[in-house]
Amino acid sequence: MRDDIEQEQHEEEEELFEHHKIIADKGQAALRIDKFLSDRLPNSSRNKIQQAAHSGNVLVNGEEVKPNYKVKPMDEVSIVMPYPPRETELKAEDISLDIVYEDDSLLVLNKPANMVVHPGYGNFSGTLVNGLVYHFQNLPEMEGNEGRPGLVHRLDKNTTGLMVIAKTELALSHLANQFHDRTSDRRYQALIWGEPEDETGKIEGNIWRSVKNRKVMDVFPDGDIGKPAITNYKVLRKFGYVTLMEYKLDTGRTHQIRVHSKWIGHPLFNDPEYGGNRVLKGTTFTKYKRFVENCFEICPRQALHAKTLSFTHPVSKEWMSFDSELPDDMQAVIEKWERYTAQREA
Question: Annotated catalytic, 198?
Answer without folding.
Answer: no
